């Protein structure tokens, strides 16, 4: 299958290893990955911070860039959530119904990685090997906006050598929330402290998730604690082989 | 200044606006370990209980959809429904008053109490009367309001503010409660211990005397049925039932959004409300009354219909969903922000996620500009809400109306411009790589990040560099 990669601005700039892993994994499974030029950012930060007007050109750009493709994947539950639940809404609110329709059409063909693998490519065992103790944090937007359910866990359970341990209070938000982490830094930090406590309780050496943004937050905290626990994007574990 | 319909709730009266921004108030609350332990314990317990009784119902999702549909229908024809309610209540012997704002409602109630000559009123726990600051207005007029809900009584005696919709004294533990009773409760036993049954018995003794010696009660209402003119209050303690049946005069203050079209609609809400709020299959007391029944219960009944910004909320197609709220407080109990900051940080009688969308709409968003941001948009509130209010979507909607700091506006405009010009975007990516900020403490607003979190080392090459070189 020919799959267009929406890399997301954060993975592109700060976590290219997550995006590379997505490409290498899909290619290993026999698919062709293309990278539509001209893509930048989905506009979620602007929308969620209260700048819908400024987000509008970014939505237009995103729709124009991905319209020609039948299947689009992004290694981020949050950005796919924005594409699926916000783009058309913001376009409508601005009175641009044509853009809203086009955005809806693109959204219907856009998948988060675990959705693409399980729902579209119908594969649960991607042939990965990762001999480490891992705990999975279900990010809020994967869980409650996209409703990916246990899809990421089903993929992880099929990884050879993995010691997958359940994260206590897994469904509690890690406290990232985009600009929430800056505007309400103290509350965000209190939420992070509890999340890190739970991660450390598991004894895992790796904490994984489907969103580079939440991982940047959790990983930043774990690094400050010098805890020795690494954060890795789900794609990086699924791309790993012996 | 006169308030007309469609205007926000007026300033200077009631409890919808805090003294400081949410982040500033939250910072103080976060430093209070006792508060956080109390909140964590209480919200975890109630979440568990509520989850168990909700799981028993196979049609919970259908009930939520029904609740949401009935509320949407109600809002779509609110004017005709409240007029229908008015005519039914009047026909049944009640008197209906219309209050455009908190000041009008306070004046109406105060005048009504004055006319009875009673120096005191007993009160049923009610969010609407908290919202308008009725107790302060009554006290100013020399009338003593006595809260009869146990937790509300603790808050009142402690000269405190409620911090939870349903459990207003959630921030107090039993030692603190004993101290408040010893200090403030008339005729209390000086040997009072902090044993919960002993504390409850002390309150019971005090309240029984008050019930029997007070001739006027003030209540709110959970529902008002347009079709029949019936008002309903649901509660756990039975103290509300006392207030609704013993006095000669009953004055009910109800927000106009509490109306329901038909009697049958109660079937849906009386299942949704107790399970989401206290985690009970059915609340212990459901009281309903229709006007006046000669020789039985209060012989004078007044209904005050309160607007106080609600018509303004109704005019906003996205935001009006906030008026669907049945005040169950499930959204508070699942909110990771509320669990850590408590209710006072929201500066309004409506705390937690519902407060973050309702208070700014009632007051105008400029008066509560930090509240729409008091959320990580994790969405737990939407999943918990028995009437499916899309709280995260309304938060995002309100953020778009909130006044933004100038420096942020400039940064956001620059970011959007850069993101819309791929060449500039790539240049910015490379600049980020060169800046070598990793491990450093950065200036505001990024200092909020680096106070507790390291920033990752920028990668040697961006994804698109890697892709081009493949
Ligand atoms: S918004 Fe929903 S969950 Fe929150 S108090 Fe109102 S009805 Fe309950």
Can you offer a commentary on this structure?
The complex is a heterodimer of chains A (242) and B (470). Chain A has 242 residues and is an alpha/beta fold. Chain A has 2 domains: 119 residues, Glutathione S-transferase Yfyf (Class Pi), Chain A, domain 2, CATH 1.20.1050; 107 residues, Rossmann fold (3-Layer(aba) Sandwich). Chain A is built from 14 helices and 8 strands. In chain A, the strands form 2 sheets. Chain A has a 4-stranded parallel beta sheet, sandwiched between helices. In chain A, helix 6 packs antiparallel against helix 7. Chain A starts with a strand and ends with a helix. Chain B is an alpha/beta fold and 470 residues long. Chain B folds into 3 domains: 114 residues, Alpha-helical ferredoxin (Fumarate Reductase Iron-sulfur Protein, Chain B, domain 2, Orthogonal Bundle); 252 residues, Rossmann fold; 63 residues, no CATH class. Chain B contains 22 helices and 10 strands. A 6-stranded parallel beta sheet of chain B has the order 1-10-7-4-2-3, sandwiched between helices. In chain B, strands 8-5-6-9 form a 4-stranded mixed beta sheet. In chain B, helix 3 crosses helix 12 and helix 16 packs across helix 18. The mean pLDDT of chain B is 94. Chains A and B meet through helix 1, helix 2, helix 3, helix 4 and helix 9 of A and helix 1, helix 15, helix 17, helix 18 and helix 19 of B. Iron/sulfur cluster binds next to helix 14 of chain B.
């Amino acid at each position: 299958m020919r799959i267009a990669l929406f890399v997301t601005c954060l993975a592109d700039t700060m976590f290219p290893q997550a995006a590379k892993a997505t490409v290498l994994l899909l290619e290993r499974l026999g698919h062709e990955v293309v990278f539509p030029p001209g893509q930048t950012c989905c506009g979620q930060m602007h929308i969620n911070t209260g700048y819908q007007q400024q987000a509008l050109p970014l939505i237009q750009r995103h729709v124009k860039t991905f319209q020609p493709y039948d299947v689009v994947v992004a290694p981020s539950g949050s950005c796919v959530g924005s594409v699926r639940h916000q783009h058309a809404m913001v376009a409508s609110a601005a009175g641009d119904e044509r853009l809203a329709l086009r955005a809806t059409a693109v959204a219907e063909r856009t998948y988060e990685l675990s959705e693409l693998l399980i729902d579209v490519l119908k594969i649960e065992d991607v042939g990965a090997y990762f001999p480490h103790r891992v705990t999975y944090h279900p990010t809020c937007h994967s869980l409650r906006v996209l409703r990916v359910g246990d899809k990421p866990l089903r993929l992880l359970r099929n990884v050879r050598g993995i010691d997958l341990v359940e994260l206590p209070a897994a469904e509690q938000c890690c406290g990232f929330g985009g600009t929430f982490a800056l505007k309400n830094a103290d509350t965000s930090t209190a939420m992070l402290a509890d999340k890190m406590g739970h991660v450390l309780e598991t004894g895992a050496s790796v904490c994984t998730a489907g969103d580079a943004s939440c991982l940047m937050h959790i990983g930043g905290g774990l690094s400050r604690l010098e805890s020795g626990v690494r954060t890795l994007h789900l794609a990086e574990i699924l791309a790993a082989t012996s | 200044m006169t308030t007309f319909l469609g205007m926000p709730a007026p300033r200077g009266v009631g409890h919808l606006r805090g003294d400081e921004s949410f982040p500033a108030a939250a910072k103080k609350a976060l430093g209070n370990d006792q508060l956080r332990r109390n909140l964590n314990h209480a919200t975890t317990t109630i979440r568990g209980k509520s989850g168990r009784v909700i799981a028993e119902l196979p049609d919970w999702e259908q009930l939520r959809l029904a609740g949401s549909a009935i509320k949407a229908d109600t809002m779509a024809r609110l004017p005709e429904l409240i007029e229908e309610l008015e005519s039914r209540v009047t026909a049944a012997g009640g008197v209906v008053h219309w209050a455009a704002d908190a000041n009008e409602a306070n004046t109406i109630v105060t005048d009504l109490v004055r006319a009875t000559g009673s120096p005191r009123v007993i009160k049923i726990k009610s969010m609407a009367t908290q919202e308008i600051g009725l107790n302060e207005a009554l006290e100013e007029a020399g009338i003593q309001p006595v809260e009869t809900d146990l937790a509300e009584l603790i808050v009142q005696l402690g000269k405190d503010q409620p911090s939870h919709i349903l459990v207003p004294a959630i921030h107090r533990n039993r030692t603190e409660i004993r101290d408040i009773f010893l200090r403030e409760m008339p005729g209390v036993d000086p040997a009072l211990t902090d044993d919960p049954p002993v504390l409850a018995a002390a309150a019971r003794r005090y309240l029984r005397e008050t019930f029997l010696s007070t001739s006027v009660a003030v209540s709110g209402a959970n529902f008002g049925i347009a079709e029949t003119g019936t008002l309903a209050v649901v509660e756990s303690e039975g103290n509300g039932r006392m207030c609704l049946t013993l006095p000669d005069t009953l004055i009910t203050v109800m927000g106009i959004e509490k109306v329901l079209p038909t009697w049958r609609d109660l079937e849906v809400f009386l299942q949704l409300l107790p399970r989401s709020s206290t985690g009970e299959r059915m609340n212990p007391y459901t009281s309903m009354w229709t006007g006046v029944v000669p020789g039985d219960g209060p012989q004078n009944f007044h209904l005050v219909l309160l607007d106080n910004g609600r018509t303004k909320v109704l005019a906003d197609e996205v935001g009006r969903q906030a008026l669907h709220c049945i005040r169950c407080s499930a959204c508070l109990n699942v909110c990771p922000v509320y669990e850590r900051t408590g209710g006072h940080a929201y500066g309004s009688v409506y705390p937690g996620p519902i407060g973050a969308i309702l208070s700014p709409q009632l007051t105008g968003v400029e008066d509560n500009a930090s509240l729409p941001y008091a959320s990580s948009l994790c969405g737990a509130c939407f999943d918990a809400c028995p009437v499916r209010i899309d709280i995260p979507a309304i938060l995002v909607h309100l953020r778009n109306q909130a006044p933004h700091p100038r420096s942020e506006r400039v940064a956001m405009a620059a970011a959007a411009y850069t993101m819309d010009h791929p060449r500039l975007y790539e240049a910015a990516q490379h600049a980020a790589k060169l800046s070598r900020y990793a491990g450093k403490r950065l200036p505001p607003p990024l200092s909020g990040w680096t106070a507790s979190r390291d920033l990752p080392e920028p990668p040697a090459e961006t994804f698109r560099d890697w892709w081009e070189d493949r």
